[in-house]
Amino acid sequence: MSMKKDQIKKILIFDGSNAEHVGDAFCQCMSKMRQLFTGSVTEFIRLCIDSENPLLVTDAFESEIRRIDPDIVIVPATALGEEVAPALGIRFGTGVAAHCSDILVNGEGRVAYMVPAFGGKVIGEIFIPDTRPAIATVKPGVFPADERGAGGYSDVICRCGQGTGDVELLETVKYEMQKNPIEKADIIFCGGFGIGSAENWEKLEKLAEITGGAAGCTRPVVDMGWGPDEQSMIGTSGKTVRPKLYVGFGISGAAHHLCGISDSGIIVNVNSDGNADCFAASDYTGEADASKVIDCLLEKLG
Fold first, then answer.
1. Is 215 in contact with 204 (CB distance < 8 Å)?
2. Global model pTM greater than 0.70
3. pLDDT tens figures, 96-105
4. Cis link prior to 133 (omega < 30° from 0)?
5. Count of beta carbons in the 10 Å neighbourhood of residue 270
6. C-alpha distances in angstroms, 198 versus 152, 192, 228?
7. pLDDT digits (tens, 9 = 90+) for 203-235
């Protein structure tokens, strides 16, 4: 049987390597855990490990779990967290609920982890067996943060030293991030398969630059290699966003994308297909060629 709410006394939340800066993903997870477990949990713990090497982090993380003995471990699903969490699951012989879109307590008082399946078209209700610790990864942006996420926990800072963990560095690749990350942007221009080309993706980035917003995309745009990587992807397998204004171009409206934008202020979609599913989730729609509308916006705003 899975754990019940009243059995959970300690929750450990991973916050990466920078102990001096409390991360946004940590605050989001902390807010959710406080909301969900107020009255049952006696201790919330923030864990920082001063390394980006997954092997070193996993070793240090394992040692801290054995020392602290938490009931639940929450790991933001960053590039590092996605490597460390399953390794910890194997070492402890426990369940890992990956990429949770929500965490709930059901009518029986049991903790349920809501996990996207079949490309995000279905949300599965996962119950981790009564093993310790239960481990869950959460994509940054899934949970909103509030002021309660900024306090009410103790810090654990772990030093890894300068070891390599038997890893040989082969290459260092510099990654240029958008000036305004999509999860923090007030305006998002999002492209789907219907934008048709890498050239149009570059135009969306230009629109974002002009307006102080950010450019996002759906998975087909990433798969086509039109420019962005998964850091710009929105949906259950990407990021959850809450902009004041979301403008989509050439997006079909698959459920696994729409759930990532559902908390947006105003949703606008442009698509040449008047029956596109995205229109049903929009405040304003335009049945038009996405590339022509992008060009028009650039002309007006540029």
1. yes
2. yes
3. 999 898 999 9
4. yes
5. 27
6. 46, 11, 9
7. 999 999 999 999 999 989 998 999 887 788 898
